[in-house]
Design a protein that fits this description.
- The longest helix is centred in the last third of the chain and has 31 residues.
- The model has no long low-confidence stretch (mean pLDDT 89).
- By secondary structure, the chain is mainly α.
- The protein has one domain: Orthogonal Bundle (Helix Hairpins).
- α2 runs antiparallel to α3.
Length: 100
């Protein structure tokens, strides 16, 4: 049986990797992947605490978070497609020229 601390360390490492990806990358697809990594880290926390305390609340929240992540990807892909059409690339630093 694996202790809950291992899951929390894995979750913290995944969250830090996702945060690093958001802060250092300019590619919009890598932004989406980093956000998904951070959401997955949160899901691991929910499931680990749910297992630790013996109730299903964390697992239910995790299912809602997965649904939220799917909606976020759908909207994000739409934004990336518009960004690619307008600028012929997915560099997010060019999107500042889309302002009025």
């Amino acid at each position: 049986m694996v202790p809950a601390q291992y899951y929390l360390l894995l979750s913290a490492a995944m969250f830090c990797i996702g945060l690093f990806g958001i802060l250092t990358r300019k590619n919009a697809l890598l932004f989406l992947m980093s956000v998904e990594l951070m959401l997955t880290a949160g899901n691991i926390n929910f499931v680990a605490f749910s297992f630790q305390y013996g109730n299903l609340t964390g697992q239910v929240f995790s299912l809602f978070t997965i649904a939220l992540a799917a909606a976020e990807v759908a909207v994000g892909i739409g934004i990336i497609l518009v960004l690619y059409r307008n600028f012929r690339g997915v560099d997010v630093t060019q999107a500042t020229t889309m302002r009025w």
